[in-house]
Amino acid sequence: MLIKDLSNCCLKDSYCQSCQGEKCLIGYSQKQLIDSLKSREEFLEGVLDELPLYDVKNYDEETILKSIGNLLKQCRNCKTYHDEDCIINIVRSALEIAILGESHEYEGSVLMYLLAISEENPEVGMKIKEYFNQTS
Fold first, then answer.
1. Which of the 8 DSSP states describes residue 59?
2. Please, are residues 6 and 28 in contact by the beta-carbon 8 Å criterion?
3. Per-residue pLDDT, 118
4. Are 113 and 107 in contact (CB under 8 A)?
5. What's the CA gap between 19 and 23, in Å, rounded?
6. Which alpha helices (DSSP H) does the chain contain, by range?
7. Which residues share a beta bridge with 43?
8. Which CB contacts under 8 angstroms, 24+ apart, belong to 122-126?
9. How confident is the model at residue 122 (pLDDT cuts 50, 70, 90)?
C-alpha cells in the first residue's frame, strides 16, 4: 500500500520532464522503501540524513496528506523505542517536507503526532486525521 501511495504522489513526466530518481523526495522514498522490503530491514541507518531537502517541487497536497494518513496506519506506536532510522519515519519525514517544507519530530505515538501537527497547522492536521481514520 505504501508503494502505491508513493507512486500516486509522483508527479511523473508531465511535471518533471524526466524522472529525477533519488534527487526527488518521492523517488528517494520509493527507493528506500523498496530497499527496506528487499533486505527485510526495518531500520536504515543514515538514510534520513540523505533526504533531498533541495527538492522544491509543488506536490498535490491531498495525495501527500492521504499518504501520510495511510502511512500512520503502519506505525507501531513505539513511544520511547521510536527510532529515527525506521523506514516509516523516513518516508513520513519526506512527505512532510513535500507538504510542510520541513519534517516534524515524531515521538513514537500517532496520537501525539496528530496533536502536534494540528497545533502547528490545524488544517493539515485535520486532513491527515481524516485520512488516518478512513478504512480502505
1. P
2. no
3. 93
4. yes
5. 9
6. 2-9, 12-16, 25-39, 61-72, 87-100, 110-120, 122-133
7. 86
8. 124/65, 124/99, 124/100
9. very high
